[in-house]
Specification:
Blueprint: E1 8-14, E2 28-29, E3 32-33, H1 34-44, E4 50-55, H2 58-66, E5 71-73, H3 81-89, E6 96-99, H4 109-117, E7 129-135, H5 139-143, E8 149-152, E9 158-162, E10 179-188, H6 189-197, H7 202-207, H8 211-216, E11 221-225, H9 236-250
Parallel strand pairs: 1-4, 1-6, 4-5, 7-11
Antiparallel strand pairs: 2-3, 6-10, 7-10, 8-9
Helix pairs in contact: 3-6
Subcellular location: Cytoplasm
Pathway: Nucleotide-sugar biosynthesis; CMP-3-deoxy-D-manno-octulosonate biosynthesis; CMP-3-deoxy-D-manno-octulosonate from 3-deoxy-D-manno-octulosonate and CTP: step 1/1
Catalytic activity: 3-deoxy-alpha-D-manno-oct-2-ulosonate + CTP = CMP-3-deoxy-beta-D-manno-octulosonate + diphosphate
Length: 251
């Protein structure tokens, strides 16, 4: 994608003390830490004018800068990645900010190009932020609360996100595809800063899904379908799966 009109940067929020798997971003992934591999993958897409890791910890800051990357230390404590990114970009001259998850080192250029392309589409003026979704294939995946589900309107704008299976299928003859939300976002800078300044409301607090804050305040989230099947590293088992995936890619 040739994005001459918009200045697009990538931000990778990186918290060291992850609740479920502390220190996961500094774990070895076949000779390179998870966070460095993610940073390098974002840079290698060549879609961004700049790529930064924004972190709360000097260990991660030093890991990135020692490998020639760009990193920013957060000034405040933050509950979510969007807040961490918003603080970092507040005084930057940018149009679109892409949030790349630090624990997803297998980001892929084609999906990111599709995500950014919506900001040049016919309904671009309606879009506050965009994100990715992919179909879920098994009942186990649909029922798993760690797979966040999303439903959209006919124009692919998000109606709701939930850890529960949505929609509930009362009519068993209805043909329904369940979609998993992939937590890669492209924000207009203004929408991101609005999020940062607005308090959490009830739905976000209940589901613990920050994207619900945007919907609760009337922001428009454009969803882009992808075939990308990410490996998010939330557990030691996920790390092993990622290592095997890299081994297989080399064969």
């Amino acid at each position: 994608m040739n994005n001459n009109k918009l200045k697009v940067i990538a931000m990778i929020p990186a918290r060291y003390a992850a609740t479920r798997f502390p220190g996961k971003l500094m774990k070895d992934l076949n000779g390179t830490t998870v966070i460095t591999r993610t940073y390098q993958a974002a840079v290698s897409t060549k879609l961004f004018q700049e790529v930064y890791v924004v972190t709360d910890d000097e260990i991660i800051f030093n890991e990135i800068t020692n490998h020639g990357g760009k990193a920013i230390i957060s000034k405040k404590e933050h509950e979510c990645g969007s807040d961490r990114i918003a603080e970092a970009v507040e005084d930057m001259d940018v149009d679109i900010v892409v949030n790349v998850q630090g624990d997803e080192p297998f980001i892929e250029k084609e999906s990111l190009e599709d995500l950014l392309a919506v900001f040049e589409g016919e309904d671009a003026h309606q879009i506050d932020l965009a994100s990715l979704k992919t179909s879920l294939e098994t009942e186990e995946e649909v029922e798993n609360p760690n797979h966040v589900k999303v439903i959209t309107d006919k124009n692919d704008f998000a109606l709701y996100f939930s850890r529960s299976p949505i929609p509930y299928v009362r009519n068993k003859e209805a043909e329904i595809t369940y979609y998993k939300h992939i937590g890669i976002y492209a924000f207009r800078k203004n929408a991101l800063l609005d999020f940062y300044r607005l308090p959490m409301l009830a739905l976000e607090n209940a589901e613990k899904l920050e994207q619900l804050r945007y919907l609760e305040y009337g922001k428009n989230i454009k969803m882009v379908e992808t075939k990308l099947k990410t490996i998010g590293i939330d557990t030691p088992e996920d790390l092993e799966k990622a290592r095997l995936t890299l081994d297989n890619l080399k064969k």
